[in-house]
Amino acid sequence: MSASWHGVRTVAVLELRQRVRSTRWVVALVVWFVVVGAITALSWAAIHGLGGGPGVDGGLPEEVFTGPPIFGVVVFFVLFLGLLVSPTLSATSINGDRNAGTLATLQVTMLSPAQIAVGKLLAAWVAALAFLAVSVPFLVLALAAGGVPVVAVVVCLVVLALLLAVVCAIGLGFSALSPRTSGSAVLTFLSVAALTVLSPVVFALTVPAVTQDEPVRVWSVPLDYDWESGEPPECEWRTETMPVFHTERTWWLLAVNPFVILADAAPEARQAATVSDPLAAIRTAVRAARTGPATEQDWCTDTFGSFTSDGTPVAPAQSPVDVPEPDRSVVWPYGLAVELLLGAAGLAVAIRRLSIPQRRLARGTRVA
Q1: How far apart are CA 9 and CA 4, in angstroms?
Q2: Both 11 and 92 in a single domain?
Q3: Spatial distance between the Cα atoms of 255 and 202, rounded to a whole number of angstroms
Q4: Residue scoring higher pLDDT (144 or 270)
Q5: β-pair partners for 239
Q6: Which residues contact 208 (CB under 8 A, 6 or more apart)?
Q7: Which tens digits make up the pLDDT trace of 197-247?
Q8: Residues 182 and 272 in one domain
Q9: Both 86 and 184 in a single domain?
Q10: Number of folded domains in the chain?
Q11: For the whole model, what pTM was predicted?
């Protein structure tokens, strides 16, 4: 076990030393820090600029925390940048060394294919974590605005680290499969795009397929009600045939999205803010999609007001509509499990392609 870890550490140290010697590495970290800082400052100014901030005349109420929306914007932006940067850290790791003629030097040593692959993955992940570490001060800054529990920062950092490791592993797998660095980089970016962009697009495109006309009980104003009479309507039950969206069949398409995983895993804020909290909005929307449609709808209480026969208003809480409680069970473990399986598959492919001797190599592949 110690020998295995020593080999992994040797490969990882070699990879990291090559990165540290490059001035572009330092420039990239500085640019990352400046960009994330600018987004944090703009988010802070925009949210507090709604009315001067909490406690100020004409501003937000004192009991409203602005931390959740600021934290949500910053953590999503960090994830967005991480998904852009991580593929460049591993997608050229194997085929780049092969083209440079340095990979064969590692393969003829006592290092096993698993040690080489895991070492390269570890180096790419540590490099990605360096970018994440630069973002920590700005995530902590959202705590100063209030409403964000400390555990939320910890949980989001852990989830971010795992998602970055998955992207690095996927890039490593394509780096072992593709003989050209440009090809592996493009394939990795396409995989990231499929998880982040294609998953909600496919979910939206499947809506017509899971939509069907069904009878639904509605609590509504009678069809023969005279709106010019001035008398309050007496709501009643009736059955309407309408399109029903069965999103409970396709919610899993959203569960694999990294942004959904991060939003659903983040603990809820201590108090809801009047300004939009992106984490809470995505969490609520996905769990509502998992719950599916209601068998009864209220078209009277909120729209027209519900009244008894003698004209007495019926409070919304007394509405006879049976609205199903949204599914409170978490979604992120399913999506994260799929992501980890994809990362494991990428690592397995890299180990397999590093095994020697190879029976067949791609045309034009340099060995040494």
Answers
A1: 9
A2: yes
A3: 12
A4: 144
A5: 217
A6: none
A7: 999 999 999 988 988 888 888 877 777 777 666 666 777 788 878 888 888
A8: no
A9: yes
A10: 2
A11: 0.83
